[in-house]
Amino acid sequence: MNDRIGAPGSGLSRRELMIATGGAAALAGCMSRGQGDDPESPDSSGDEEDASSDLPQTSAPEVVQVDEQDGSVTLRSVTARHPVHPIDSMGGPIELPQVWAFQADDGEPSVPGPILRTTEGNDMEVTLDNTDADHPHTLHFHGVRKSWKNDGVPTTTGVTVYPGEKHTYTIPANVPGTHFYHCHYQTHRHIDMGMYGIFRVDPKGYEPADKEYFFTLKDWDSRVNRQMAGENVDYSPRQRNPDVFTINGKSLPRTLHPEEGSPIIVDHGDTVRLHMVNAGYMSHPMHTHNHRYRLVEKDGGQVPEAAQYEHDITNVAPAERHTIEFEADADPGIYLMHCHKVNHAMNGTSYPGGMVNGIVYRDAMNTDVFADLMEYAGYEG
Question: What keyword terms does UniProt attach to this protein (predicted)?
Answer without folding.
Answer: Copper, Metal-binding, Oxidoreductase
